[in-house]
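Field log, afternoon session.

UNIT: design team B
ACTIVITY: writing a sequence onto a fixed backbone
BACKBONE:
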C-alpha cells in the first residue's frame, strides 16, 4: 500500500485515483492535423503550378475529410482524451495519408515519408501494444499504397515513376522508418517518464524527511518546555499523597496523578530523544552524521562498523537521507558486515560504504543509479525495514545535488559505493552564526 505521507495533500491515491491519465491532449492532435492539412494543400498547389497532374478531386475530398474531422473535434470536444480516442484519431490520419499517397504516385511521391508522423506520435503517447498495432497497420497501408498507386504525370504527359530498384529501396526505408522511429520515440518517452516519476519520488522523499526533522525539533522543544510544569505537578501530587494518609481514597487519586505526571515526562523525554535534531543543529561531526544515517539499520542483522574521522559538515536532511538509502542497500545484501569508512585527502572528503554480499551484477553495474532498476544484486532483501523504493536513484540524485560524485563498483568482496565531496561544498564552520530559525508549519 502506498504511504500517504509521500504524496502532497489533496492528491488522490488508491481507489480514488484516476483510472487512466490522458495519453495526449486532443488539442495537440487537432493542431498537428491543421499543420498536416496546410502542408497537403501547399503540396497540391505547388504540384499544379508545376504542371504535375494527378487525381485532383479525390485528393481534395481526402483533405476535406481531414478538415471535417478537425472541425468536429473543435465544435464537440470530448471532456477528456482516452487512449481509445487517440488511437481512433491517429488511425484516421494513417488512412488519410496512405490514401493520399496512393492517389499521388505512391513511392514516387517525395512526401510519402510523412506517413511516419502518426505512428511516431503514437509511440510518444500510447502504450507499446497500441503503438505496435498502429505501426503494423501503417506498414500494411504503405505496402498497399505502393502496389495500388496511381501514377503522376508531368506537364508533357510523361509518367513519373521510380526504377524498380529505387522503388524497392524507398519502400524498405519506409518500413524500417516505421519500426525505428516508433521504437526510438517510445523508448525515449518511457525513460523520460520514468525519470520524471523518480524525480517526483525523490522530491517527496526529501520533503517527508524534512517534515519529520522539523517535527522532531518541535517535539524536542515541547519536551523541554513542559518538563518544569510536569515536575511541579509530580512534586505537589507526592506531597498531597503524604498528607492524605488518613484519606485512602484521596491518597490513591494523588498517587495516580503523580504516576501520570511521571509517565508524561517519560513519554516526552523519549520523544525528545527521537527529535534530538532540533532546528538549530545544522552542523555535526562526520561520524555523527554517519551514525545518524546508519541508526535505522543497526538491528537488522549485519554488523555496521563505522570508521570515520572527518571534519564537521553540514547536517543536511537530504544528505542524511541519501546516505541512509545507500546503507540500507548495503545491509539488504550483506552477509554479516557493512563497513563505512572516510578519508580526507587533496581537498576531497571521501566516504566509502562496502558490504560482504554478492556485489552488483556486472550486466547492471553501468546502470546503477538509473530510476526503476528492478533487478536485484542477488538474494532476498532483508526484513525489518520498509524501503521506499528507488533507493539508489534517490540517493544518487540527492548527493549529486549536494556536490558529491558517486562511484559504484565490486570488491571487498561485495559492493562498494564511494561518495566524494569537495571539502568546500560539504564542510561547515561550527563557530559561524546560526542565523534565523526556519519558520514552523502548522
Amino acid at each position: 500500500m502506498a504511504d500517504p505521507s509521500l504524496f502532497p495533500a489533496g492528491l488522490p491515491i488508491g481507489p480514488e485515483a484516476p483510472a487512466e491519465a490522458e495519453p495526449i491532449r486532443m488539442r495537440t492532435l487537432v493542431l498537428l492535423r491543421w499543420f498536416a492539412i496546410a502542408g497537403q494543400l501547399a503540396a497540391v498547389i505547388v504540384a499544379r503550378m508545376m504542371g504535375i497532374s494527378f487525381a485532383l478531386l479525390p485528393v481534395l475530398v481526402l483533405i476535406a475529410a481531414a478538415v471535417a474531422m478537425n472541425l468536429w473535434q473543435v465544435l464537440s470536444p470530448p471532456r477528456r482524451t482516452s487512449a481509445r480516442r487517440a488511437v481512433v484519431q491517429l488511425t484516421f490520419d494513417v488512412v488519410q495519408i496512405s490514401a493520399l499517397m496512393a492517389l499521388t504516385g505512391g513511392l514516387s511521391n517525395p512526401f510519402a515519408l510523412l506517413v511516419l508522423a502518426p505512428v511516431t506520435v503514437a509511440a510518444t503517447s500510447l502504450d507499446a501494444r497500441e503503438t505496435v498495432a498502429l505501426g503494423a497497420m501503417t506498414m500494411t497501408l504503405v505496402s498497399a499504397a505502393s502496389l495500388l498507386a496511381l501514377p503522376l504525370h508531368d506537364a508533357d504527359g510523361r509518367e513519373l515513376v521510380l526504377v524498380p530498384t529505387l522503388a524497392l529501396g524507398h519502400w524498405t526505408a519506409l518500413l524500417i522508418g516505421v519500426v525505428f522511429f516508433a521504437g526510438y520515440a517510445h523508448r525515449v518517452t518511457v525513460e523520460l517518464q520514468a525519470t520524471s516519476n523518480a524525480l517526483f519520488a525523490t522530491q517527496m522523499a526529501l520533503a517527508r524527511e524534512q517534515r519529520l526533522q522539523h517535527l522532531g525539533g518541535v517535539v524536542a522543544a515541547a519536551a523541554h518546555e513542559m518538563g518544569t510544569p510536569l515536575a511541579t505537578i509530580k512534586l505537589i501530587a507526592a506531597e498531597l499523597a503524604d498528607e492524605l494518609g488518613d484519606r485512602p481514597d484521596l491518597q490513591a487519586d494523588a498517587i495516580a496523578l503523580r504516576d501520570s505526571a511521571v509517565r508524561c515526562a517519560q513519554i516526552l523525554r523519549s520523544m525528545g530523544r527521537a527529535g534530538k535534531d532540533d532546528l538549530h543543529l545544522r552542523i555535526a561531526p562526520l561520524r555523527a552524521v554517519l551514525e545518524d544515517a546508519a541508526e535505522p539499520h543497526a538491528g537488522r542483522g549485519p554488523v555496521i562498523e563505522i570508521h570515520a574521522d572527518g571534519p564537521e559538515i553540514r547536517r543536511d536532511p537530504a544528505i542524511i537521507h541519501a546516505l541512509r538509502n545507500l546503507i540500507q542497500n548495503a545491509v539488504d545484501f550483506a552477509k554479516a558486515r557493512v563497513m563505512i569508512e572516510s578519508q580526507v585527502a587533496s581537498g576531497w572528503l571521501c566516504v566509502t560504504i562496502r558490504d560482504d554480499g554478492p556485489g552488483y551484477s556486472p550486466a547492471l553495474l553501468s546502470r546503477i543509479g538509473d530510476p526503476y532498476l528492478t533487478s536485484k544484486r542477488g538474494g532476498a532483501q532483508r526484513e525489518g525495514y520498509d524501503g521506499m523504493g528507488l533507493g539508489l536513484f534517490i540517493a544518487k540524485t540527492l548527493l549529486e545535488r549536494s556536490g558529491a560524485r558517486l562511484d559504484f563498483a565490486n570488491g571487498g568482496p561485495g559492493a562498494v559505493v564511494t561518495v566524494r565531496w569537495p571539502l568546500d561544498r560539504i564542510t561547515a564552520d561550527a563557530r559561524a552564526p546560526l542565523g534565523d530559525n526556519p519558520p514552523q508549519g502548522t
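LOG NOTE: The beta strands are 152-153, 159-160, 283-285, 303-307, 312-314, 337-345, 348-355, 405-410, 415-422.
NEXT ACTIVITY: expression trials, pending approval
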